[in-house]
Design brief:
The complex is a heterodimer of chains A (about 230) and B (about 450). Chain A is built from 8 helices and 12 strands. Chain A has about 230 residues and is an alpha/beta fold. Chain A folds into 2 domains: about 5-120, Response regulator (Rossmann fold), CATH 3.40.50; about 135-225, Winged helix-like DNA-binding domain superfamily/Winged helix DNA-binding domain (Arc Repressor Mutant, subunit A), CATH 1.10.10.10. In chain A, the strands form 3 sheets. A 5-stranded parallel sheet of chain A has the order 2-1-3-4-5, with helices on both faces. The mean pLDDT of chain A is about 85. Chain B has 3 domains: about 35-150, Beta-Lactamase (2-Layer Sandwich); about 210-290, Signal transduction histidine kinase, dimerisation/phosphotransfer (DHp) domain (Helix Hairpins, Orthogonal Bundle), CATH 1.10.287; about 295-460, Histidine kinase-like ATPase, C-terminal domain (Heat Shock Protein 90). Chain B contains 14 helices and 10 strands. Chain B has helices spanning about 1-30, 35-70, 100-105, 105-110, 145-150, 150-190, 200, 205-255, 260-290, 300-315, 335-355, 400-405, 415-425, 455-460, and strands at about 80-85, 120-130, 130-140, 295-300, 320-325, 330-335, 360-365, 375-380, 425-430, 435-445. In chain B, helix 8 runs antiparallel to helix 9, helix 9 runs parallel beside helix 13 (about 415-425) and helix 10 packs parallel to helix 11. Classes of the chains: A alpha/beta (about 230), B alpha+beta (about 450). At the A-B interface, helix 1 of A face helix 8, helix 9 and helix 11 of B.
Chain lengths: ~230, ~450
C-alpha cells in the first residue's frame, strides 16, 4: 500500500482524486496549501507527493525547494498546461516528473506508478542487475539506490538516480532519448518534453565535471546523451 | 515627407526674401532720411565730377568737354547737358522734356529748384569765350535704392541666413510629423508600447498637443488590448479548474458504470479533450501576442517538416486523405522549435481538414527569394474567397459556418501559426491556386552552413 499526499488548493478536485486513487489501491491524504503540505510531510512518511504549482500561501515551487533541503521523497508536479516555465523550474528544483493539468486520471495513475516503481526498485526487491558497479570516481549501489562520488554519498532524487544509473551502465555509448526515457522515467517521451534535459542538467550540477575538467554527460543533439569515459593517460 | 519639407522650406524662404525686398523699398521711398553709405559715396563722386566737368568746360570750351566725355565716358552718377541761351543742346543729346524747364528758368529761381523725380539737378550758368552764355545742367543719378543697402556679399549673406532660418523652421515643423508617423507605424505593426517622444510631447503648439493626444490614444488602445488579452487568459485559466474536476469525475463515472455507458463517456471525454485543447490554444495565442523574446536553439527544419508530414499523413489516411512531402531542402533556423513545429503542423492539419476525400495535401520546401526558407502547403479544397484571404489569420476566422464546424475547425491554429512565424521574423501568406488554398511560409535562415554539434551553442549567440 503506497501512501500518497495530494497537495492542491482545489478541495473538490482533491476529494475526487482521493476517491479515484483509493480505488486504484493507494492510501491518500490531502493538504490544501503549501504550509499544510510541508507539516504533513514532516509528520508522516509518504511514498509520493502530488504537488500543484498554483497554491495559496506557499506555491508548489516554494514547497519543493523547502522539501528538497531535507527529503528526496518522489514528487509529481501538476502544472498548468502550456506553462513550460513552471515545469522546467520544478524539474530543476528536483521534481521527479510533471503532468499538465487538467489531465486524464488514467494518465495520472500511470505516471504515479512509473515514479513509484523507480523509487521502489531498490528499496524492496534488489533486481538482477543489483551488483555494485563503478565508473571512474562514481560508484553505484543499485541495492541501496545509492551513488557515491569518491566515497561521498550524492543526494539524488530517485529519478535522477535512475537516469544516472542508466547512463553509467552504458558509459561510453550514446543512450537514445527514447531508451533513456523508457528505462529511467518509465514512460515514452513526448515531443518537446524537457524532463530528461532537466534531470540531466541537475545531474551535471551535482556531479561536477570529470577530474580532467571535461563534461561528464554530453548532449548528442537530436540523438541522446553520452556519459564520457575518462581518458586514462 | 520630403516633399512637404521642401515645400515648406521654399515657401518660407521665398516669403522671407520678398519681405526683405519690400522692407528695403519702403524704407528707401517713404522714410529714408538718413543717407546710407552707398548714397554718400555716390555724392562724393558726383561732387568730384562736377568740379572736373566745370574745369574742363571753362578751360577747354565746348569741344574740349565733348572730347573729355568721349574719352572718359559719362560719369557714373551724373548726366551732363549743355544748353545755349535759347535752349539748344550743345552736346548732341536733346534735353528730356522733364528737364526742359531748367533751360528757361530765370537764374534767381535755380537755387531753389525742386528735385525732379528724386534726381537733383544743378544748373551752372557761365559765359564761354567764343560761345557766349551757356547753361551747364548736371543731373545727379543716385544709385537705385536697393543698392543703398544691398551688395553682392550682403545678398549672399541674406540668402544664407534666411536659408538657414527657413531650413530650421521647416525641420522644426516636419520633425514632429515624422515622429508621429514613426510611432503610428510602430503602433500599427503591433508595438503597443510605441509612444511619441518627449521632445514632441513637450511642445506647446498644436503639434505637441497632437503628440500628447496620440500618446493618450495609444495608452488607451494598449490598455484595451491588454485587458482583452488578460480577459481571454483569465477566462481560459478559470475554465481549467472545472475541466480538471470534470476529467476526474469522468474517470470515477467510468469506473462505476462498469462499461455500461462507455460510448457516451467516450464522447464526453472527447469533448473535454477538445475543450482542453481549445483553452490551450487560446492561452498560447495570448502568450504569443505579448511575447517579443524567443527561445533560440538551432532547428533542423527538414527533419521537423518530415516529422510533421509523416504524422499528419498517418492521421489523414484514416480519413482517406494523403499528405506528401514533394520537395526537401536542408535548412537550419534558430528559434523556438516547439512553436515553429506547432505553427507548421497547424497549417498542415488545416489543409487536411479542407482537402476533399482521396486528394493529396502537398508540402514543399525550398530556398526562396532572398535566401529565405520557403515552405508551401497546398490543398485541393475550395480555397477562400479572395476578399477574405487577409482575414484567414485572424482568431476564430471561419469561411463558412456550417462546413467549417463540421470539419471541426475552431480557427485558432492559423492565428497561432502567424504569430509564431512573425516571431521568427518570417512572413506567412495565403492565396488561391485555382485548385485549392496555398499557404506560403518564409523564414529567414541562419548564416550559411549547419554548425557542428559542439559549436551549436555558440552559433546561437552569434
Amino acid at each position: 500500500m503506497n501512501r500518497i499526499l495530494i497537495s492542491d488548493d482545489d478541495l473538490e478536485l482533491c476529494e475526487m482524486l482521493q476517491e479515484y486513487l483509493v480505488g486504484e489501491g493507494f492510501v491518500v491524504d490531502m493538504a490544501h496549501d503549501g504550509e499544510h503540505a510541508l507539516r504533513q510531510l514532516s509528520a508522516e512518511a509518504y511514498d509520493l507527493l502530488i504537488l500543484d504549482i498554483m497554491m495559496p500561501i506557499r506555491n508548489g515551487l516554494d514547497v519543493l525547494r523547502e522539501l528538497r533541503k531535507t527529503s528526496q521523497v518522489p514528487v509529481l508536479m501538476l502544472t498548468a498546461r502550456g506553462s513550460d516555465v513552471d515545469s522546467v523550474v520544478g524539474l530543476e528544483l528536483g521534481a521527479d516528473d510533471y503532468i499538465p493539468k487538467p489531465c486524464n486520471p488514467r494518465v495520472l495513475v500511470a505516471r504515479i506508478r512509473a515514479v513509484l516503481r523507480r523509487s521502489e526498485a531498490s528499496d524492496a526487491n534488489p533486481s538482477q542487475d543489483s551488483e555494485t558497479f563503478g565508473v571512474g570516481d562514481i560508484t553505484v549501489y543499485p541495492g541501496a539506490h545509492r551513488v557515491e562520488q569518491n566515497g561521498n554519498r550524492l543526494e539524488l532524487t530517485s529519478t535522477e538516480y535512475s537516469v544516472l544509473a542508466c547512463l553509467l551502465r552504458h558509459a561510453g555509448q550514446v543512450v537514445g532519448k527514447d531508451q533513456l526515457s523508457k528505462e529511467a522515467l518509465g514512460r515514452r517521451l513526448e515531443r518537446f518534453d524537457r524532463s530528461l534535459d532537466m534531470h540531466i542538467s541537475n545531474l551535471r550540477r551535482k556531479l561536477g565535471p570529470l577530474p580532467g575538467g571535461e563534461e561528464r554527460i554530453h548532449t548528442v543533439r537530436g540523438v541522446g546523451y553520452l556519459y564520457t569515459l575518462e581518458r586514462t593517460s | 515627407m520630403r516633399g512637404q519639407f521642401l515645400k515648406i522650406f521654399l515657401w518660407f524662404w521665398g516669403a522671407m526674401i520678398a519681405l526683405v525686398l519690400i522692407l528695403v523699398w519702403t524704407s528707401a521711398h517713404l522714410g529714408g532720411q538718413e543717407i546710407p553709405p552707398m548714397l554718400e559715396h555716390a555724392r562724393e563722386v558726383y561732387q568730384k565730377d562736377t568740379t572736373e566737368v566745370k574745369n574742363v568746360l571753362q578751360s577747354r570750351g565746348v569741344a574740349g568737354l565733348r572730347n573729355w566725355l568721349e574719352r572718359h565716358g559719362s560719369p557714373r552718377f551724373m548726366e551732363v547737358f549743355l544748353l545755349t541761351a535759347d535752349g539748344r543742346s550743345l552736346l548732341g543729346r536733346a534735353l528730356p522734356p522733364r528737364l526742359r524747364a531748367f533751360a528757361y528758368m530765370p537764374e534767381r529761381y535755380l537755387e531753389e529748384a525742386p528735385p525732379v523725380r528724386n534726381h537733383h539737378v544743378a544748373v551752372y550758368p557761365m559765359v564761354l569765350p567764343g560761345t557766349g552764355y551757356v547753361r551747364l545742367l548736371l543731373v545727379f543719378h543716385p544709385p537705385s535704392p536697393i543698392w543703398h543697402i544691398l551688395s553682392y556679399q550682403r545678398l549672399a549673406m541674406a540668402l544664407l541666413v534666411s536659408g538657414l532660418v527657413c531650413w530650421g523652421l521647416a525641420a522644426y515643423l516636419t520633425a514632429p510629423v515624422r515622429e508621429l508617423r514613426r510611432v503610428t507605424q510602430g503602433l500599427a505593426s503591433g508595438d503597443l508600447n510605441a509612444r511619441a517622444g518627449k521632445s514632441l510631447a513637450r511642445r506647446r503648439d498644436e503639434l505637441g498637443g497632437l503628440g500628447r493626444d496620440f500618446n493618450t490614444m495609444a495608452s488607451r488602445l494598449q490598455s484595451l488590448i491588454q485587458s482583452r488579452q488578460r480577459l481571454m487568459a483569465d477566462v481560459s485559466h478559470e475554465l481549467r479548474s472545472p475541466l480538471a474536476r470534470l476529467q476526474i469525475a469522468l474517470g470515477l463515472a467510468r469506473r462505476r458504470s462498469g462499461g455500461e455507458v462507455s460510448s457516451e463517456l467516450d464522447r464526453i471525454e472527447r469533448e473535454a479533450d477538445r475543450l482542453n485543447e481549445l483553452i490551450g490554444q487560446i492561452l498560447t495565442l495570448t502568450r504569443l501576442d505579448s511575447q517579443t523574446a524567443l527561445a533560440s536553439e538551432p532547428i533542423d527544419m527538414a527533419a521537423m517538416v518530415k516529422t510533421i508530414v509523416t504524422d499528419a499523413n498517418y492521421e489523414a489516411q484514416t480519413r482517406n486523405r494523403e499528405v506528401k512531402l514533394v520537395g526537401e531542402v536542408a535548412a537550419e533556423i534558430v528559434g523556438d522549435e516547439s512553436l515553429l513545429h506547432s505553427a507548421i503542423e497547424n497549417i498542415v492539419r488545416n489543409a487536411v481538414r479542407h482537402t476533399p476525400e482521396d486528394s493529396t495535401v502537398e508540402v514543399d520546401m525550398e530556398i526562396g527569394k532572398g535566401g529565405q526558407l520557403l515552405i508551401e502547403i497546398r490543398d485541393k479544397g475550395p480555397g477562400i474567397d479572395e476578399s477574405l484571404l487577409d482575414k484567414v489569420f485572424e482568431p476564430f476566422f471561419r469561411v463558412d459556418e456550417a462546413r467549417n464546424r463540421e470539419a471541426g475547425g475552431h480557427g485558432l491554429g492559423m492565428s497561432i501559426a502567424q504569430r509564431a512565424v512573425t516571431l521568427h521574423r518570417g512572413t506567412i501568406s495565403a492565396s488561391n491556386t485555382g485548385e485549392g488554398l496555398l499557404v506560403r511560409i518564409y523564414l529567414p535562415l541562419t548564416t550559411d552552413g549547419v554548425p557542428e554539434l559542439e559549436m551549436a551553442g555558440d552559433s546561437v549567440k552569434a
